[in-house]
Amino acid sequence: MTNNPLLETKSIRKSFGGVVAVRDVSFRVSHGEILGLIGPNGAGKTTLFHVIAGKEQPTNGTIHFKSQDVTGLRPDQRCHLGIARTFQIPQPFSQMTVFENVMVALHFGAGQHTGSLEDEASRILARVGLDRWASEESSSLPLGARKKLELARALATKPTLLLLDEVMGGLRPNEITEVMATIREVRESGVTIIMIEHVMRAVMGLADRIIVLHHGELIAEGSPAEITRNEAVIEAYLGGSAHVSS
Ligand SMILES: Nc1ncnc2c1ncn2[C@@H]1O[C@H](COP(=O)(O)OP(=O)(O)OP(=O)(O)O)[C@@H](O)[C@H]1O
């Protein structure tokens, strides 16, 4: 642990024409933390991830990672520095097998490898519970396995910071419990995590701290218990279709 945050966003704004998707959002993430990022549909969560990962340039504001200003860097450069992400809709190389997908990510990432890449790919697949799917073509996977493959590919790049965009979405209750255990293990291995999640059981059970976006603005920040009681958060959610509950 150091006192410097691992990630710091300062006044991030992202506009698409007249739509302000993210409005002057500043927050910090400490080393080893699991930060939950929640908010109703259209709140700006995925756009904020795009800006942190480099897929979108902010209209204003800066991003520092490991005390370095990474605002102008491309996604691949940020990945090599240690930022990895998953996508809400899994995006594997569909004609490749599960194993090959992980091998590509291992080649691409900047991590140090102790043994062979093949052994490492097998270890990562076992870690996310995908070992029995290793030789399947990724296009043939059911949703739960595709979500796990997203996680495996992100882990294979050896991130310091892992951005998880709704990894639980569409999973069955037993799969959610499994993936929660994997995420805990990943954090214990020293990876810092920011997770966008609509499955409240998962985010309330995993996050040390939660930040809440609504109409692009950061409206609340606190522990899961504080967020559950926060009036502004309850109002934001009751205005939509979801409920905040642990
Ligand atoms: N490329 C784009 N062009 C125009 N508007 C966009 C673009 N991307 C996002 N938006 C708009 O920005 C706002 C925030 O969208 P975003 O996908 O970031 O929300 P979200 O919180 O991730 O939502 P969800 O929980 O439904 O995934 C929405 O109004 C959306 O329509």
TrEMBL record:
Keyword Transport: yes
A Pfam entry, by short name: ABC_tran
Gene Ontology cellular component annotations, sorted alphabetically: plasma membrane
Superkingdom classification of source: Bacteria
Keywords noted in UniProt: ATP-binding, Nucleotide-binding, Transport
SUPFAM superfamilies for this protein: P-loop containing nucleoside triphosphate hydrolases (SSF52540)
MF terms (GO), sorted A to Z: ATP binding; ATP hydrolysis activity; L-isoleucine transmembrane transporter activity; L-phenylalanine transmembrane transporter activity; L-valine transmembrane transporter activity
An example Gene Ontology biological process: L-alanine transport
Domain ABC transporter: 7-240
InterPro entries linked to this entry: AAA+_ATPase, ABC_AA/LPS_Transport, ABC_transporter-like_ATP-bd, BCA_ABC_TP_C, P-loop_NTPase
The protein's name in its UniProt record: ABC transporter ATP-binding protein
